[in-house]
């Protein structure tokens, strides 16, 4: 054990570099395999892929999935910076690769912050060599724990979201603040705020952490006031681009008791709290700034009505920012423990052990890479890909949720919804169903082609409705003349739509 400890102490930077590179590859593989197996979706990979592809081709980024200018959904002003990715490889998987490498790279900032906190011989000549090595161990442990945080794993696993840019920027903002690199601090803050309208809330949350650091208190207050103010302003900007206004505005109760209850009033919310603090062995509880930051971050999702329930789950990208606040809180807690003569190096190693145990117990996304079923290829997947090659380039296409990201490099891509229509049985149209309650596929009339997977065992999330009536709806439309079969490959079908068809 002593030899292992000595090796780690002597090679922490090399180990960290190998970890970042290895994790980048692992995260890329995780999300790409999921996408290749048709588990990604139009919400949200297809949505952002279309926008970045349009930027890459110097086009107006209009989101046809939600039928609005892309900034009418979120204020994602950093998306154009990703356009060169498609100049290198014009494939949606470039976004997944970027996401994996960017979030893995941010672990370096955590390492640097921890080295500043616990002594770096390059920065402080008074630091003893043995203390320098201990500091490196602490920093390495925290960098690994941060990059294994459950919220970050689900961020990578669940499609692509601009918030990944913000999460990475947050940790670099913390580093630039503590290292006094003001120019880079300002640039990073600007990029953060341009990433999404709620990144102002993230900046304010970071401010709560540094408010308890006397050295950074004035800057922390600026973070809080400026962050909240920006998010309020940004939401107004989004509303001006949206036909339905800003869709993510919370409905906050004036009753403080109700507000507090709303943080814990569902099983999913309570699960978030458990996952959040257990990930760091509850150590951040010793850091009041981290507690405030976490409450403030979660408030935008939890202190709301049930219309925000889709954002309560611990297994989505919304929880990724918590990893930043928890890691910084853990650092504060370790500094506190040091004052009580509790070795922070040993505490950091314990934290790492807890993180690795929970990785196994909770079966977090990275575990899927060692499961044979995650890699299993099925014939229908290749059928879909063969059919995609038959879709005319640039054609206006309507398709189901899990096929959109494979066809979204075009200006017109539309989502298909299975719905029940109460057609009059006395009309010619009604007779094709045989009854008044007729299953039908709704999609934008501008679509020239319809691409569908007719397998009977599709998941609910793939078609956004019960698959019991999926093929019934396709059959009804085909009988009525709304769609006409062009090609079929196994269960995958390409239909030409009838532009003269009008629903009666």
| Percent of sequence in beta strands | 5-15%
Count of separate DSSP helical elements: 22
User: Helicity level, as a percent range?
Assistant: 55-70%
Strands of the widest sheet, in order across it, are 4-3-7-9-8
Low-confidence stretches: none
Mean pLDDT equals 91
Rg (C-alpha, Å): 25 Å
The geometry reads as elongated
The end-to-end distance, rounded to whole angstroms, is: 77 Å
Largest sheet: 5 strands, mixed
Total of domains: 2
Characterization of this structure:
The chain is of the alpha/beta class. It has 2 domains: 2-16 and 90-372, no CATH class; 379-497, no CATH class. Helix content is 56%, strand content 8%. The chain is built from 22 helices and 9 strands. The chain has helices spanning 2-10, 12-36, 42-56, 83-88, 93-105, 107-118, 129-147, 150-157, 163-179, 182-195, 199-210, 217-241, 256-262, 267-278, 288-302, 320-339, 344-361, 372-375, 379-388, 428-431, 460-463, 470-480, and strands spanning 62-63, 68-69, 397-399, 413-415, 417-422, 437-442, 449-453, 483-489, 492-497. The strands form 3 sheets. The protein has a 5-stranded mixed sheet with strand order 4-3-7-9-8, sandwiched between helices. Strands 1-2 form a two-stranded antiparallel sheet. The chain has a two-stranded antiparallel sheet with strand order 5-6. β8 and β9 form a beta hairpin. α6 packs antiparallel against α7, α6 (107-118) runs parallel beside α9 and α6 (107-118) runs parallel beside α16. The protein is elongated. The termini are far apart. The model has no long low-confidence stretch (mean pLDDT 91).
């Amino acid at each position: 054990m002593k030899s292992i400890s000595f090796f780690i102490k002597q090679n922490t930077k090399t180990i960290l570099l190998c970890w970042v590179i290895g994790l980048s590859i692992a995260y890329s593989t995780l999300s790409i395999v999921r996408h290749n197996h048709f588990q990604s979706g139009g919400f949200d990979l297809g949505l952002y892929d279309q926008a970045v592809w349009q930027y890459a081709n110097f086009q107006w980024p209009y989101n046809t999935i939600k039928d609005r200018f892309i900034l009418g959904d979120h204020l994602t002003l950093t998306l154009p910076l990703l356009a060169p990715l498609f100049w290198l490889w014009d494939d949606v998987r470039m976004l997944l690769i970027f996401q994996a490498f960017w979030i893995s790279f941010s672990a370096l900032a955590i390492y640097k912050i921890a080295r500043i906190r616990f002594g770096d011989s390059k920065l402080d000549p008074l630091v003893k060599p043995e203390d320098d090595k201990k500091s490196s161990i602490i920093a390495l442990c925290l960098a690994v724990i941060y990059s294994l945080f459950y919220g970050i794993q689900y961020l990578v696993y669940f499609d692509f979201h601009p918030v990944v840019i913000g999460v990475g920027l947050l940790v670099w903002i913390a580093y630039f603040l503590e290292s006094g690199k003001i120019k880079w601090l300002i640039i990073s803050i600007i990029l953060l705020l341009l990433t999404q309208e709620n990144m102002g809330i993230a900046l304010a949350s970071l401010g709560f952490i540094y408010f308890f650091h006397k050295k950074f208190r004035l800057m922390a207050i600026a973070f809080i006031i400026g962050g909240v103010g920006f998010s309020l302003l940004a939401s107004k900007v989004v509303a001006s681009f949206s036909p339905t206004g800003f869709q993510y505005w919370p409905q906050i109760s004036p009753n403080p008791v109700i507000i507090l209850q709303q943080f814990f009033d569902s099983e999913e919310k309570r699960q978030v709290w458990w996952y959040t603090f257990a990930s760091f062995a509850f150590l951040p509880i010793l850091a009041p700034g981290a507690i405030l930051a976490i409450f403030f971050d979660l408030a935008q999702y939890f202190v709301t009505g049930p219309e925000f329930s889709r954002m309560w789950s611990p297994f989505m990208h919304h929880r990724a920012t918590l990893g930043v606040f928890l890691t910084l809180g853990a650092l504060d807690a370790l500094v506190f423990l040091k004052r009580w003569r509790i070795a922070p190096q040993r505490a950091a190693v314990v934290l790492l052990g807890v993180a690795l145990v929970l990785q196994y117990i909770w079966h977090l996304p990275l575990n899927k890479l060692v499961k044979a079923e995650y890699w299993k290829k099925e014939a229908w997947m290749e059928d879909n890909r063969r059919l995609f090659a038959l879709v005319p380039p640039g054609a206006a296409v309507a398709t189901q949720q899990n096929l959109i990201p494979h066809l979204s490099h075009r200006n017109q891509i539309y989502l298909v919804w299975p719905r029940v229509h109460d057609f009059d049985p006395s009309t010619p149209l009604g007779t094709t169903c045989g009854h008044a309650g007729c299953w039908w596929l709704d999609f934008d009339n501008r679509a020239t082609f319809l691409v569908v997977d007719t397998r009977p065992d599709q998941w609910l999330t793939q078609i956004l409705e019960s698959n019991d009536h999926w093929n019934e709806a396709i059959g009804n439309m085909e009988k009525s003349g709304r769609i006409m079969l062009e090609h079929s490959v196994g269960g995958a079908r390409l239909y030409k739509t009838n532009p003269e068809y009008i629903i009666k």
